[in-house]
Amino acid sequence: MNVASALLAAQTARLERVDPLLPPAAVPPDGDVLTATLPGGDHVGGVVARVRYQPGTTPTLWSASDVVELHPLLGAAGGPGMDALLRELRRVVERAAPGADSACVVTWPSRDVAVAEPLLAHGFAPLSALAVRTDAGGPEPDNGLAVRLATIRDLDVALELELAELAFSAMVGAAIERPDARAVKRAALSANLEQGDPVWLAERDGAVVGLAHARMVDALPGSLSGTRLRPGRWGYVNSVSVRPDARGTGVGRRLMAVAHRELARLGATGTFLYYNPPNPLASVFWPRQGYRPLWTIWEVRPAGALR
Questions:
Q1: Phi/psi of residue 130, nearest 5 degrees
Q2: How many CB atoms lie within 10 A of CB 30?
Q3: Which end of the chain is more exposed for a tag (fewer CB within 10 A), N or C?
């Protein structure tokens, strides 16, 4: 067994004890190999991948354009291993000299609290989390709301709700409200509706007050979703937005009760989503809906701010 394979096996064993919902540790993608030596002589490693998103593409609404992403192989080292690897990453970033629209990103299991201290010490912030829900849905609240599937004829009203969610998220998380956001969102949402992704609208007295946008995802070995989730068919909640004057009236709870029921009917054994821990609304709402963090996406923006 080579060093990388040994680190991968030890990392899988350690993280299985941290969180049984995690899939086995994934082989890192192609990139530049990074290694570090701990004081006791043990070695850790990882891969640094440079990702650049083109203007006008959907990822630019939730990510910096130039991303330096570290995929750690810590074995059983935990926090000290992450600290040693981040010291080496800082040297890589200094040589790369990324610009203002850049970020360093590390995605790591949320329950592995041993790595939080070194990540914070090196300037990372927990901007996003992938959260999962595996419980069966409960009864739907009866709050006088009608919920229906959106069609392409609802594009304009659905777009305004998604843009409102983007604007709020940009203040409290990883999202970025770029000048072309309306055009990018419109094109993506139009394609989602045309291909039949479930987008539910909540109406009160005939007026649309909220939206929940979802789709089905198969987590297969070797796929991107398979590196984050246990194998199976999952419902993915892409976005939920409630009109500001309707918040706190049960719109979000009603939408999610419908979404959970319908996604289960389509074969989902669980649901997942991304939310921003710094968001004072999302960080309260989603745990109440039965979600808990599985992975945390730690970021430094710009990348040059890495300590």
A1: -90, 120
A2: 6
A3: N
Calpha distance 293→184 (Å, rounded): 28
- Please give the backbone phi and psi of residue 280, each rounded to the nearest 5 degrees, phi first: -70, -20
Of 69, 72, 131, the residue nearest 299 (C-alpha): 69
Tell me the C-alpha distance between 35 and 109, whole Å.
Answer: 21
| Beta pairing partners, 47 | 33, 71
| Residue linked to tokens 């006088």 | 144
Pairing of strands 146-149, 199-204: antiparallel
Question: pLDDT (tens digit, 0 to 9) for every residue of the chain, 307 residues total?
Answer: 588 899 999 999 999 999 999 999 999 999 999 999 998 899 999 999 999 999 999 999 999 999 999 999 999 999 999 999 999 999 999 998 899 999 999 999 999 999 999 999 999 999 999 999 988 666 677 678 999 999 999 999 999 999 999 999 999 989 999 999 999 999 999 999 999 999 999 999 999 999 999 999 999 988 889 999 999 999 999 999 999 999 999 999 999 999 999 999 999 999 999 999 999 999 999 999 999 999 999 999 999 999 9
Task: Please give the structure tokens belonging to residue 305.
Answer: 């701010």
According to CATH, the topology of domain 146-289 is: Aminopeptidase (3.40.630)
Q: Domain residue spans in the chain?
A: 3-131+298-305, 146-289
CA–CA gap between residue 66 and residue 64 (Å, rounded)? 6
pTM above 0.85, yes or no: yes
To which residue do tokens 């949320």 refer?
110
Domains 3-131+298-305 and 146-289 share a fold: yes
